[in-house]
Amino acid sequence: MILVDSLDSERWNEFVQRHPKGSIFHTPHMMDVFRSTRHHQPMFLAALDNSGEILALLASVRVQTLPEPFGRFASRSIFYAQPICSDNADGSRALAAIVAEHDRRMKSRVLFTEVRPLAAPGPEANAFAASGYDYEPYLNFLVDLRQPQEKLWRKLTNTCRANVRRAERHEVKVEEVVTEEGVETAFELLRATYQRAQVPLADKSLFLQAFRILRPHSMLKIFVAYHEKVPVGASVLLLYKKTVYEWYWGIERVRSLYPAECITWHRILWGKQNGFDVYDFGGAGWPDKPYGVRDFKAKFGGELVNYGRYRRIYSRWKFAVAEKTYDAVRKSLYSRLWKTA
Q1: Are 283 and 140 in contact, with CB atoms under 8 Å apart?
Q2: CA 97 to CA 102: how far, in whole Å?
Q3: Residue of 209, 197, 163, 233 whose CA lies nearest to 337
Q4: Over the range 40-52, which residues count as b (16 or more CB within 10 Å of their CB) and which as e?
Q5: Is residue 247 located within the same domain as residue 199?
């Protein structure tokens, strides 16, 4: 078995495309996006057999969520999808090997690694357990877009349907972003939303690079909702195979317009009308913790799934110190940003 950190794009894409759990987050296109984004450093690893066939691969990203000099308190490695491998014993062993190699390289560079599976557990569960990862339940909603449109509509709660209709009566219009100026508009809506929540948002370069790299391959859609020509909501979607991935969204809190319900229904309907099978809501929180976003997403009638998350903390005492520091810095920083916005 040979471990490599690069492959030609054709072989790489082919393996991801034919693997049942292969996602957009495994693709070279997505790695190119992260490579071009400030505070993001992607890592790709693959294991090959002696004939050069791919046995397993992973794609992770080192993310720094606060600017310097606070970066050392807020760097982590994220798998936005579980690693994938061939469906045999060699594939499982190869997967364990690349997870161990990832940890060897990253343990001195990040506080922890977090894995965000997009599918039910498979061989990766054993690999993470063997490498000292902890598993926790984590929820998500998936909408089956193969249902008739009328059935999708009926699955919305009564209040949700009423709010969509109210937005339509107020002539809230949803438009696709086709220029980089439109990306800037969407980003400002995201920025305001994340500031209100005091949650770090990725640098604007992530969205501009995604627009430049993914959109020509039909792997990205950005929508902005307008009321009387004023932007009131934005949504960024990733597209791969037959799945629409909800990636980022943000809204203005405008009374009686309900842009959140309007733009969410729009993107579900867009996925249905454009031949996709699944709308992935991108996470719904820890089951034992109240989460308003989960309550909102539940209104759209998706199936609640629990694929969990895995985490490995490389130094418990460093993590404890950094967590307290990070929380204090984050609140102070975003309070100042909000006051000056």
Answers
A1: yes
A2: 9
A3: 197
A4: bbbbbbbbbeeee
A5: yes
Using an 8 Å Cβ cutoff, are 189 and 287 in contact?
A: no
218-273 pLDDT, tens per residue? 999 999 999 999 999 999 999 999 999 999 999 998 878 999 999 999 999 999 99
Q: Which two tokens stand for residue 173?
A: 């219009």
Same domain membership, residue 125 and residue 216: no
DSSP per position, 216-248: GGT-EEEEEEEETTEEEEEEEEEEETTEEEEEE
Domain with 319, as residue range(s), is: 2-137+308-340
Distance of CA 37 to the CA centre of its chain: 15
Answer yes or no: do 146 and 118 share one domain. no
Q: For the beta carbon of residue 88, count every other beta carbon within 10 angstroms.
A: 11
Same domain, 39 and 174: no
- In this structure, the answer to whether residues 130 and 147 fall within a common structural domain is no
272 and 156 belong to one structural domain:
yes
Count of CA atoms in the C-beta half-sphere (13 A) of 224: 21
Residues 301-335: tens digit of each pLDDT:
999 999 999 999 987 766 676 666 666 655 555 44
**Looking at the structure, do residues 31 and 112 belong to the same domain, yes or no?**
yes
